[in-house]
Structures are given as C-alpha cells and as structure tokens.
Amino acid sequence: MTFTHYARAFWGIVWRELLRFLHQRERFLAALVRPLIWLIIFAAGFRAALGISIIPPYETYITYDVYITPGLLAMIQLFNGMQSSLSMVYDREMGSMRVLLTTPLPRWFLLIARLFAGVLVSLFQVYTFLAIAYLCGVELPLWGYLIALPALILTGMMFGALGMLLSSTIKQLENFAGIMNFVIFPMFFASSALYPLWKMREGSWILYEICFYNPFTWAVELIRFSFYQKMNWEALAVVAICTIVFLGLSVWAYDPSRGIQQRKATAPAGG
Amino acid sequence: MQDSASGSAGTSQPVLSVQNVSYWYGAKQALDDVSFNVYSGRVTALLGPNGAGKSTLFSLITRLFDAPTGRIEIDGHAAAEQGFKILGPLGVVFQQPTLDLDLSVRQNLRYFASLRGLARQEADVLMEKALSSLDMAERIGEKVRALNGGHRRRVEIARALLHSPKLLLLDEPTIGLDDPTRDAIVRHIHKLAASENIGVLWATHLFDEVESDDALVVINKGRVVASGDVAGIEKETGSKSLAEAFRRLTGDKVEEVAA
C-alpha cells in the first residue's frame, strides 16, 4: 500500500460524499432553514428582551443575533455530524458500506476519510449560512470568517466523531432518529449557544454545571473566540481531547457486521 | 468427499484457501469446519440451498466478519497475518445491490477505482474495457437509478473487475434477473475466468449456473457435504444429474429452474 493509494482513496471518499450531498438538495435546505429560523425569528424577538453584557471575546456591546451566531454554526455542524452518521448506518444496512470495507485499506483510515468528508460538507453549509446571515445584517469581524476556519474544522470533526461513535453503537437504522433527538437538543439547549454561562449560573447552579461540562459549550466558545481573532485555550483543549476520544472510541467500536449479526441470530435461516 | 474443490489441487497454489472455518451467530452455528480451495482460471461453484451459510462464508472471506476459527488465505496470504492487505487481489459482487443510485455509472466506477488506488486516466481506460466486455460502455454517463436490474448487475461485475483481481467472489449475482441476462452473465464469467486466469468463487442455489467443467463445493446447513468436479460428485452419489445429486446430499427439494 503506497501513500498515493491512500491519497487517491481519501480523495475518492471525500469526492463521493460531496457528490451525494449535492444530490440531496433537501438536506442542504433543511440544514440552512433550521438555524435561519433561530436567527431571524428567535433572535429578533430576544434581542429586545435580552441584553448581553461585555464579556470576552467581545469588547463592546453586541446584539443578540451576533451572540447566537457561533452557537448556530455549531448547531449546523452537530446536525451535519449526525446526518453523516445516519448515512453511514444507512450504507451499512443497505450494503454499500461493504464496497468500502472490502478494499485493502484499514478501517480507521476509511472512517477518518468519511469523517473528513462530512466536515467539508458542514463547512459548505456553515459558510452559506454566514453569507445569508450577513445579508440579514449579522456582521462578524471580516478576518474572523477566515481565521475561524481551523476552529470550524476541529469542531466539525468533534461532532462528526460523536455521530460516528453513536452510529458505531446502534444496531439498527430505526433506532438512530430517536438517538439523534436525544443527543442534539439537550446538547444545544444546555450550552452557551443561547445564553452566556454567567447568565445560566444566575438562573440555576445545576444547569450551569451541566452547560459547563457539555462539549458543545466549548465548541461554541472556540468558534466564538476565533471569530474575534482570540484563542480560548481551554475550549481548544476540550474540543481536541473530545475529538480524539470520540474518534478513538468509534474506530474501536465500529463493527460492519452489526445489524447483520443481530438479524441472523434471530432469523430461522440465513444465507 | 474430497478436500479440494478443484482438479488443479496439488499442482498449483490455490488463489483462495479456506481451512477448517467455523462461525456462530450467537448460539446458532452458521458454518461448521468448512474447508475448500479455489484455483486460478477456473470457476468454483459454491452450491447450497438458501440458509446454507454461503453469504456468511463470503463475509468471512471479505473480512466483514472475523473468522474465530480456521484459516483463510487469499493468494497465499492469511488474513490473520496480513490484515486488510489480503483484500488487494479480491473482486466482489455482493448479493445485495451496492451501487450508489444517485451517481452515474462513471462516478460509481471512478469511486471504486480511487479506493483501489487507480489513477483517473488509468481507471477511465479500464472502465471502458470492463464495460465494453459487458455491453455497457454506452451507458457510462447514465445514473444507476435509470438502469434495470440486469444492467446494474453488469456494472457491479465491471466494477469488481476494474483492478484486475486474481480472485472474484460472486454471491448469487443472478438473483432477480431474467433468464437471458442470467445466461449472458454466466457465460461471461466462465469465459473471463479462463481468458484472464481469474479464480472465481460463485455462490448459487441454481444448478443451471454450474457448468460441467466447474469445480463444485456443495454446502448444506453450514457443512461442506461434497466437493470435487461435477461428474465426480454425480458418480459418488450414484446420481444421473447434478439436481439429483444435490437432492441426495442436502435432502432438499430441487429448484424448478434446475437444468
């Protein structure tokens, strides 16, 4: 196995995922509509009711829609991570994952290539959302759009790895939708996406603790700080460690025969 | 019962060697001490009724499942020692359709070619050759969704041959196809095995897909109940036809499509 083989296979996997994404226009629209509703309707209402005090990384008062934008970017990536994992479970159930797994490439490499492809798709969604948000008057620092890119790649990998870990552990496609809802909404709401942590602490100490230990919070903060060209080292460390742990566990737990084994064990006869 | 499925046994190294392989789904045993060889340039038919363990065996050979017992070697290399590298000389057509319906034939094949490390130009030449041999070259730009079942199967066979494999596995590749398409695929694979010197393992439960000079492994309830050449198995079981031999070996009803 040569480096060229790995490079070609990696590009092939990424290219296929991008092609598939381009064919799924509904998925793209859904990915944009959800955060846009939050931004345009929810944030517009709350901007009048809520004041955000000057907290890092901000150096002046900001509007609520500017505050929640990093959280919405993380939400796009979390949804995309789950969607990519759902597609992996679907591929596993439908058989097309077999084509990938019967190549002479190690599984960890195949899974990482799939993960990276999912991150690229999420970046496409994120920057499209940012463009629409800009047109709606949500302006972030100009250089931030570029400087936040590495942070967005890392957070995309963390959410993709989390989705992969979930898909590695579930046995059947039908179970995945329930798990997605069970993970996505608590992660989003119990984080600093909608309110700063200090405001949470004022409301409930327990909720603050939950938000503090939620990896989603740190992903949001990493994105938020990077847009303002500042580094939140704590957030970087948490996101990097979570990415490594989620990815390691998902590679370890990934079993292509999951589901098949279950069906065969309970079926009267198998091929 | 012979140990090997091929008449070439003892004269050359098998391209696939399965030795003493057993497998369980939970408490249910799917394969019981299965052994046979497949040799280059010849089709070995893995004949067995539904539920005999053919697909399980394919999953073990392709490393989708790990074999808990026994030894599987592809082109002289064992999975236990070489890991996923042993899948290099392997081409597979699964029983389940595995093409991406929303992509074109070209995109599906290019994707596979990249997984096999082929450069795009090289892949395009090989695609043209493989599709032409199956009369599918003109459909290369079409979406797979627009193709009928027979044409999709041909594309899957072309895909499995792109990287010039030494061993081709076909898991009931003609399921759901009409007779003319089935015959064409059977003929093409037999011709290909001889002309390209590929070892072919063809899992089926249909006798008319087995030709008289094929090597044969009959499997039933997870056990190899006979192996050798067709004439030898007929003689061994005192049968006048393969269908009769199969009935005697498995105790099952013979399929209506039997030749």
Task: Produce a short descriptive summary.
The complex is a heterodimer of chains A (271) and B (259). Chain A has 271 residues and is mostly helical.
Description of the molecule:
The complex is a heterodimer of chains A (271) and B (259). Chain A has 271 residues and is an all-alpha fold. Chain A is built from 13 helices and no strands. In chain A, helix 7 packs parallel to helix 12. The two termini of chain A are 33 Å apart. Chain B is an alpha/beta fold and 259 residues long. Chain B has helices spanning 54-61, 79-82, 105-115, 120-133, 149-161, 179-196, 230-237, 242-250; strands at 16-25, 28-38, 43-47, 71-74, 77-78, 90-93, 167-171, 199-204, 215-220, 223-229. Chain B has a 6-stranded mixed sheet with strand order 6-7-8-3-9-10, with helices on both faces. In chain B, strand 1 (16-25) and strand 2 (28-38) form a beta hairpin. In chain B, helix 3 packs across helix 4 and helix 4 (120-133) crosses helix 5 (149-161). Chain B starts with 15 loop residues before the first strand and ends in a 9-residue tail after the last helix. The A-B interface holds A 1-2, 4-6, 8-9, 11-13, 15-16, 19-20, 23, 94-96, 98-107, 256-257, 260-261, 264-265, 268-271 and B 25-28, 30, 50-56, 59, 62-65, 83-88, 90, 92, 94-100, 102-103, 107, 110-119, 172.
